[in-house]
Predict the structure.
Amino acid sequence: MVTDEQVRLLMKGIQRERSLAVAAAKAGMSEKTARRYRDLGKLPGEVRPRHDWRTRPDPFETAWAEVRSHLEREPRLEALTLFEALQRQYPGKYADGQLRTLQRRVKTWRAIEGPAREVYFPQVHTPGRLCESDFTHMTSLGITLAGRPFAHLVYHFVLTYSNWETATICFSESFESLSDGLQNALWELGGVPTEHRTDRLTAAVHKTEHPQEFTQRYEAMLRHYGLTGQRIQAGQANENGDVEQGHHRFKRAVEQALLLRGSHDFADRGAYVAFLHQLLARRNAGRRERFAEERSSLSGLPSQRLDGGKRLLVRVGPSSTIRVQHNVYSVHSRLMGEQVEVRLGAETLEVWYAQRRVEVMPRLRGEKKHRIEYRHIIDWLVKKPGAFENYRYREDLYPTSRFRVAADALQRDLGARGSREYLGILQLAAQASEIGVDDALRHLIDRGETISMAAVSAIVHSGDPLPQVTAVTIADVNLESYDALLGGAAWR
């Protein structure tokens, strides 16, 4: 048996004699053995003999056949799931500390006998060829606007060569959101890549009738920008890997920036958008060189953006409303009985008549909601005050909280006549100034004066500036005075 000292002599001999045969003879070993230790580069004591026997009994020897059958039937089963099942089946037999042993056995089984794993093939990206996009939900981050939860998504776009990314806030995975997000990205880039890849979005791909075909609206947008569309296979999110990984990294970056900021709350949507733009600017800062290279490979933009909104023909009902995708919107009573064209954007709804846009209003999210603009119907409500009390959309006829306070006060003091007074005030807001009427109501409420149509009208038409809300300053409290009241006793 060769000792550590013999190998040390061998190594020294090789350095001095420069002959393996001479060094081996001086170290007292054969040339073959000397060559093995020279190539190994370790002392005999450093070479731990390999063995394939267990040093302690296998606690899962009797149960392994059962575990193995479960794995062969369903390879996705985790060791923890199987371990907990064994604990339930054999109470008291398996201690929690033995979980690691089963995890190692399951890991070995997967590597030697388990199903083949999916192979990922690294791709070489060409500048200006491919972009990828998808929607990602942001609600889990707990973002609020003025204290109110802000449920939203982000349309996330990535240029695969430079990893340059853009983001657009949206509220659904509709085609309108896809259109806005993609067009925002292209116009921000100042050019168009060759191909656009998405997953199987309903906004882009037929789900039922022709699952292998793009929708007509998506095809039209691709043609408008000279893009070639790609769709990933069902269940193969890795084919959209750049943007899928980008989602995770982007959301993590947003979360970290929020933690650093110390608050998830923003004054308004504009402040939140500015926050996201600053974050994206920092993330894209290190990509400027590759983006400049890619930018030169992009095709030119068309002369204008594509109107990606959905167009519908609807008729205005006798209640001066239209129904669009299970939601109700009011329009001016002049349009009752007429057919109008509705153009749906991602966040807006436009009403067109005789090739003229007559209304623009925020698009409602969800279904079975309503948006009634009091200016559309107030003139007829004044003529029919009895309809106000039981009007289905009455809650929409209080523009601010002060209008609601005024309506309640008038109804309390005047009964049925109070509705006429309130509707007169609401009509004044439509004809003169909603802000002016709101300020007048604030003045009357703060002074405890009687609210009436005449009083509000007098204030609005006086032209006199109303006093501003008085600032209240609370002086610092001297806590020593409390100690004196307590006889100097200390707080316990």
